[in-house]
Write a structure and sequence with these properties.
two-stranded antiparallel sheet; 465 residues; two-stranded antiparallel ribbon; globular; mainly alpha
């Protein structure tokens, strides 16, 4: 019990106001530093993504997977339970206005995502097995001076990434999928865990190329299906949508705590909306954590800036498109702030389930259950790659002279076993541990990109769209 309380207090501290200011401040600074190019060139970035769907090798250059597969791997890691459960939680704890701050944080987060991805591609390396390796740890170890500081930050980042990979990217995801499948279909957690174990191991045996191929199919299909179902819910509740949007805007910028109209019993002002909107936004799109650049470094590309633009669209799709759709569905439902028969405010997956069931009937619950399961599986295989590269750096160092196949093979099996463990366990402690690892990942990464922002800016200014 003492450990749980300690972790909860540490989690509250790590994700306190200072962390949110650091995330937003870094994003705003980089947006201005890059002369708003991430915003100005968003159209170009989206066209590059579209182009790479049909011509995956058009950019040439070295790399293990196509730019599109790299983006889908990053999106797979992003699009987890945060897109469904996280949005609902943010709007309950922070009021409807939390969605506004989620979107605003994503807009400035695109500059952060662009910068960290440019640096990752610039400083990536090939290992003795011929695979591309990159990410914040390679940037820190190669570019930050003094060298001891760079190596120290790299080691810390890798340790925190491993923790986040096994926690937030693995066990909490399989746990959410197991609970959802049991509640809807009565499937035992052990059966879900066993199936996820074998599917995960099957994908991981092929490495990043296998992960990229699976994510290149699963992520766009599941995202499009969920988005279309969410649009259907919004259209069914369209009469309430304008009032819901006005309520969000009002409560997002209100200096005083107010009770929402469509927010029911929820009382929140700007401070709560900002806190929960930014924190859940970062949890969902991962801009600034340093995770997406690891996938970006594996892409076949002729330019760090080009891949930076492609990777930053992950933040756009994840939060500005998918999370916004979920939030608007909840805001237009009229049940935000509703109370259960036991007196508790309807929250998390229970709230999202209710919103979809009211609009789509029994099919609505099916949409949420399958959405959580597929999002969770995609997150599991995406985050394995991040943990794998972090382990490789820790075991073999920045300048590797020998193969990493054996330790990586062992890690893949243990990671798959952790998927099973997560599905059959109670994870209150793991949730807090995962949030802490996420926050601690960001610290060395944000320091790194602030120190090296000039290099990313130069790459952006030299690149012509």
């Amino acid at each position: 019990m003492k450990a749980d309380v300690l972790l909860e207090k540490l989690n509250t501290f790590v994700w306190g106001p200072w962390m949110l200011v650091l995330f937003m401040g870094t994003g705003i600074f980089l947006t201005v530093r890059l002369k708003f190019l991430p915003w100005k060139n968003l159209g170009f970035a989206l066209r590059e993504v579209w182009k790479n769907i049909f011509h995956p090798s058009i950019d040439g250059g070295e790399g293990d997977i196509s730019p599109f597969q790299s983006l889908m791997t990053a999106l797979a890691a992003m699009m987890g339970t945060g897109n469904i459960v996280g949005v609902a939680t943010a709007m309950v704890l922070g009021g409807p206005g939390a969605l506004v701050w989620m979107v605003l944080s994503a807009f400035v987060g695109m500059a952060t995502n662009f910068t960290e991805s440019v640096l990752a591609v610039k400083y990536r390396q090939k290992n003795p097995d011929g695979d591309m390796c990159g990410g914040p740890m390679y940037v820190m170890g190669s570019a930050i001076r003094p060298a001891a500081l760079g190596r120290g930050l790299a080691v810390l980042f890798c340790i925190f990434t491993l923790g986040a990979s096994l926690g937030m990217g693995n066990m909490t995801q399989s746990n959410s999928a197991a609970i959802a499948l049991k509640d809807t279909f009565g499937i035992p957690e052990m059966l879900t865990g066993g199936i996820l174990f074998f599917l995960t191991l099957l994908v991981l045996l092929g490495g990043i190329k296998s992960i990229g191929k699976v994510c290149g199919v699963v992520v766009p299909v599941m995202s499009a299906a969920y988005f279309l179902c969410t649009l259907a819910v919004i259209m069914i509740n369209f009469e309430s949508l304008p009032a819901g949007i006005l309520e969000m805007l009002h409560m997002a910028f209100s200096p005083k705590a107010l009770a929402g109209g469509l927010g029911g019993t929820i009382i929140a002002g700007m401070s709560k909306a900002l806190r929960w909107g930014v924190s859940r936004g970062v949890f969902s799109n991962e801009a600034g954590l340093g995770s997406a650049p690891i996938a970006a470094a594996a892409a076949r590309t002729d330019s760090p800036a080009r891949q930076g633009y492609i990777t930053m669209t992950g933040t756009f799709f994840d939060t500005i498109v998918v999370c916004t759709a979920t939030g608007l569905a909840i805001a237009s439902s009229g049940i935000l702030g509703a109370v259960t028969p036991g007196g508790a405010v309807l929250d998390g997956v229970a709230l999202t389930n209710k919103v979809f069931e009211m609009a789509l009937g029994p099919a609505g619950r099916l949409v949420i259950t399958l959405g959580i399961t597929l999002f969770a599986f995609a997150t599991i295989i995406g985050w394995e790659y991040y943990g794998e590269k972090a382990l490789e750096y820790l075991v073999l160092g920045r300048r590797r002279q020998r193969s990493s196949k054996i330790p990586i093979a062992i890690y893949r099996f243990l990671y798959s076993a952790a998927v099973f463990a997560g599905a059959v366990s109670t994870l209150s402690t793991v949730w807090n541990f995962s949030d802490i690892m996420n926050g601690l990942m960001a610290l060395p990464n944000l320091l790194c990109i602030l120190m090296l922002n000039k290099e990313a800016a130069e790459a952006a200014f030299k690149f012509h769209t």
